Amino acid sequence: MENAVRRIGVLTSGGDAPGMNAAIRAVVRTCVHLGIECVGVRRGFNGLINGDAQVLNYYRVSGISRLGGTMLYSARSDEFRTELGMQKAVNTCKLLGLDGIVGIGGDGTFRGLHDLSRHGIAVIGIPGTIDNDITSSSYTIGYDTACNTAIENIDRLRDTMQSHERCSVVEVMGHRAGHLALYVGLASGATAVLIPEKEVHFEEDVIEPIRRSRLTGQTHFMVIVAEGVGSSYEVAEKIREATALDTRVTVLGHIQRGGAPSARDRVTAAHMGYSAVMLLAEGKTDRVVCMQNDKYVDFDINTALGMKKGIDEDKYTVMRTMIGQGS
Fold this sequence. Notes:
This protein has eleven helices and eleven strands. By secondary structure, it is an alpha/beta fold. The strands form two sheets. It has a seven-stranded mixed β-sheet, sandwiched between helices. The N and C termini lie far apart (58 Å).
């Protein structure tokens, strides 16, 4: 079957997330299946501006699904936001004969793709971010792995906290969203969890759960803080002043972005990469592949960016029920 789409570019942009390589592999393998040539654009939109690209074939992406990070590298591009930078990117697409672009990343990536579409370039976005904060998708590539990485490190940290009868304040990623902190806190049996979506009443939300745990015989305590809440060191100092506990801070930081992706992230990436190529092959553009109710769907990028996504209130209710009861 002859395809109107003959050559597709794929890039990763913004923060990396486990599973991006699996998505790249899915895009390439689906292209090969359809007889479409796939070009890997390195270093995100910077690479599109500078023509930093190479052809990816079936064997070039063998074995990459199990690897963290992104083989195409990722970068933020201030130049791409300018009209001159945009025109350079459009010219590169024309020079390389790209009939479409698949971009893997977050909201910033989708906005960049939408801008490209206004210049006549067919584009499809795939949500990849450990924060799970893409409003149009109930799940984003990398979230499950980041949660598992955080839980593994918190379990190890709990061993030493228990040995010294300490309170540990652990900061996880999530600048504007508390999905990661809430999930990790619930899974790890945290004493308290602080997220940006909920106003913090320190005495009620942190100190009282610690006291209740202590009264039931607990001698060590775990407080999970999303980075968007504020300084974890200030949280620790307030706990120390109110309880006289030996309180220590651990910032997990970018360790949550690394490591081999989980089975869920690999499978989700495969589905989304496949869907993205199929949409381009069908002549679709300016769309983002999403997950809704465990189904893979797609939305217009502008519509997707305008959607709202709150915290999972059921998980929050369960977490509030569990806190202060020990791990």
